[in-house]
Amino acid sequence: MNKEQERFKREAFFHDKWAISENINSIAITEFFENTTALENNFILSHIGSLKDKKVLDIGCGLGESAVYLAKQGAKVTAIDISPGMISSAKELAKRENVLINFIVSPIEGLNLKSESFDIVYCANLIHHLSIEGLPRFIEKIHSFLKKGGWFYSWDPLVYNPVIKIYRKVAKEVRSADESPLNFKILKLFRKKFTKVYHKEFWLLTLTLFLKYYFINRYNPNKVRYWKQIYKEKPEEINWWFNKLKRADRVLLKIPLLRAMAWNIVLYAQK
Fold first, then answer.
1. CATH at residue 229
2. How many domains does the chain have?
3. What is the pLDDT of residues 173-199, one digit of tens each?
4. Domain range holding 36?
5. Residue % of the chain over a pLDDT of 70
6. Which of 125, 132, 126, 88 is nearest to 107 (CA)?
């Protein structure tokens, strides 16, 4: 077994264990894309427009909230994950929501699908789980799956913010050992293959929500996944202050130095 296969095995084991611990009935589907806190997916949806009859490949589908949501919007979804446990949970979620999705257990590197068969390739919090050596192969794969003019969308954490660095050191039990936040060098890799490559950053002052979880709610970061908890926030309870921080972030994150301090980056590229 080579290093990459060992990595796949560790990732699958970690996510299988996570899947077992989750209650399907508590998974936020609509909120994952439409809540006031769903900053990345709000933006991605606004860029995509109508999903009706679009062929979508959801890579690293996890518990299935993305795949199910996209299918409910009329997309024809194929969803893959390296974890059999996650796929099992995602299938259960799809059944509960009465949507048809083609689920596949596989790492992206071993995936064999028809070339140029998808309008959209989407992945949430996946790229930072890949090895540096595996990134060119990943980009090659997703490029081959997209139709000419098709779009790739992803969002992942950035490496630069010191508060997030502290959080990651504290929350070790809810993170896999192999994940590594992104830096802006990844844009160069995508530009080698894609015709158009764009990026947009989110969460600067709005990261106050994490401080609220730790200091006010007293959520143990090794018991509560903060990046999942945000979708369970009730807009009527937090909008009075959260929306003000969102508006401030829109201005501040136009400044290159501050942009690097964002928590997440949305990377979107056209073939």
1. 3.40.50.150
2. 1
3. 999 989 999 999 999 999 999 999 999
4. 3-270
5. 100
6. 126
